[in-house]
Amino acid sequence: MEYITVSKWFETWLKNKYNQKSVFIPNGIDLNSFIEHKRELNKTKIRILIEGDSLSPKKNVDESFKIIEKLDKNKFEIWYMSYNGKPKNWYRINKFLSKIPYEKVGNVYEQCDILIKSSYFESFNYPPLEMMATGGFCIVVPNDGNVEYLKNEENCLFYKLGDINSAIHCIERLISDLKLQQHIYKNGLDTAKKRDWKNLKGQILSLYEKSI
User: Fold this and answer.
1) What is the mean pLDDT of residues 66-83?
2) Which of 38, 95, 101, 139 is the most exposed place for a label (fewest CB within 10 A)?
3) CA–CA dist 106, 35 (Å, integer)
4) What value does the mean pLDDT of the chain take?
5) What is the DSSP letter of 12?
6) For residue 66, what are the contacts with CB-CB under 8 A and spacing of at least 6?
7) Least confident of 1-5, 28-32, 46-50, 58-62
8) H or E element, residue 114
């Protein structure tokens, strides 16, 4: 049997735990669904997006909203997008987006400035890639499903799991440091372009042709 994986960490896991070789294919994104535009973070209201299932412990959505609790409600507008799971009664939310069809997800990212993603376990973590594809910024907990394409202070800002104050500092730093904004914005777009399915399809087709 031949194994194919879209996660680098899973390739290592198969080898180390089961002594099975696998072929890695990078996961991709359709950039036609995500329209890029540059964000301005010096405006009156900065829109933060939180994404994930509130009922899944690994998505760690509660932590994202604990970060929100510490932010000035007059300065930040909060959108929450979830396909499964509803807001808990203590979440501070300005807009809840439930079961958004995938073809409309890009439009949600385009309307937001910063994504907070607190999940600590993912096979592959799509939301930061999708946010970067639109030119937005990401404050993220590093995990096996995102570190293969995310780099701290290059295309995102990492904060340590459970460290609320660190996440707040990341947000404040991103807003105040125009040079950092530009750096992360540019590298985020470059990362998304490298993951465009158009740039990966040759590699994928070649692998399947060898298997036939």
Assistant:
1) 97
2) 101
3) 7
4) 94
5) H
6) 164
7) 1-5
8) strand 114-117
Q: Angle, to 10 degrees, between the axis of helix 164-176 and the axis of helix 178-194? A: 100
Give mean pLDDT, residues 127-153.
97
- Exposed, middle or buried by CB within 10 Å (0-12, 13-18, 19+), for 200? middle
Q: Does pLDDT of 212 surpass 70?
A: no
Closest CA to 119 of 61, 173, 183: 61
Task: Using alpha carbons, list the distances in angstroms from residue 94 to 45, 68, 115.
Answer: 12, 12, 15
Give residue 162's pLDDT band: very low, low, confident or very high (50, 70, 90): very high
Instruction: Indicate yes or no: pTM above 0.70.
Output: yes
The strand pairing partners of 80, in sequence order, are 50, 96
| 134 contact partners, CB below 8 Å, separation of at least 6 | 34, 35, 36, 37, 106, 109, 110
Nearest by Cα to 60 from 136, 138, 119: 119
